[in-house]
């Protein structure tokens, strides 16, 4: 799973990466995001209503309404920021988004914790000739309409797909890691059939990644 990542990619680089026309860039004056946590906004590339790609900001975490066990009254909706790859085709919570609303999530690093009191936080990145490179997570998006933070909202939300960890991440988080899509799988994830998109969810090679930093403090970004 992943509860923290960064996206410091320049705005024009994201447009080039995802082949998004400037007029379909909805980010405004984008500022580098050194620390993106659940319940905050991040950037996604999705297919618009006209079938063309667009860059937008959205709330990280699909929102699930909840009620208090004590009072039976609505409380803050749960934000579900990771979707297991083995559940996205069968779970009613994910299935429609997997079939119709897949997206790409740009990133420059992600963080996983190991241990407790104190935990050690590891920042991972993709490398090209030992240099950190921007990369892309497989994501899903959805529209939420309802009460959130004491008001009625209509907002776009997203989640990242997780799968089996590779040999670099596994010692830190033995169960899950975000699905990183190589360039040749990104179009399939966005535009392919559900069967084709599911087949694109592969374990990213450990040899193409590195640990950028680690420590006992949850830093806002790797040093």
From TrEMBL:
Ligase in keyword set: no
BP term (GO), one: proteolysis
Source organism, top-level taxon: Bacteria
Entry GO MF terms: lyase activity; peptidase activity; single-stranded DNA binding
SUPFAM superfamilies: BB1717-like
Pfam families tied to this protein: SRAP
Top EC class, one word: hydrolase
Protein family according to the UniProt entry: Belongs to the SOS response-associated peptidase family.
EC number: 3.4.-.-
InterPro entries in UniProt: SRAP (IPR003738), SRAP-like (IPR036590)
Transmembrane segments: none
Protein name as it appears in the record: Abasic site processing protein
Regions annotated as coiled coil: none
Entry keyword set: Covalent protein-DNA linkage, DNA damage, DNA-binding, Hydrolase, Lyase, Protease
């Amino acid at each position: 799973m992943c509860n923290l990542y960064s996206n410091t990619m320049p705005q024009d680089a994201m447009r080039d990466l995802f082949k998004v026309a400037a007029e379909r860039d909805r980010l405004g004056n984008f500022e580098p995001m050194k620390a993106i946590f659940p319940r905050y906004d991040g950037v996604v590339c999705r297919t618009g209503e006209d079938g063309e790609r667009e860059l937008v900001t959205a709330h990280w975490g699909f929102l699930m309404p909840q009620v208090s066990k004590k009072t039976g009254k609505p409380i803050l909706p749960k934000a579900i920021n990771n979707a297991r790859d083995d559940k996205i085709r069968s779970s009613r919570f994910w299935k429609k988004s997997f079939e119709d609303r897949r997206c790409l999530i740009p990133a420059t690093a992600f963080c996983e914790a190991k241990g407790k009191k104190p935990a050690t936080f590891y920042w991972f990145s993709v490398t090209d000739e030992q240099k950190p490179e921007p990369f892309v997570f497989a994501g899903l998006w959805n529209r939420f309409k309802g009460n959130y933070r004491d008001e009625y909202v209509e907002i776009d939300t997203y989640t990242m797909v997780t799968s089996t960890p590779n040999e670099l991440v596994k010692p830190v988080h033995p169960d899950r890691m975000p699905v990183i899509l190589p360039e040749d799988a990104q179009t399939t994830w966005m535009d392919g059939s559900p069967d084709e998109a599911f087949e694109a969810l592969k374990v990213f090679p450990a040899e193409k990644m590195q640990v950028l930093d680690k420590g006992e403090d949850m830093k806002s970004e790797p040093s």
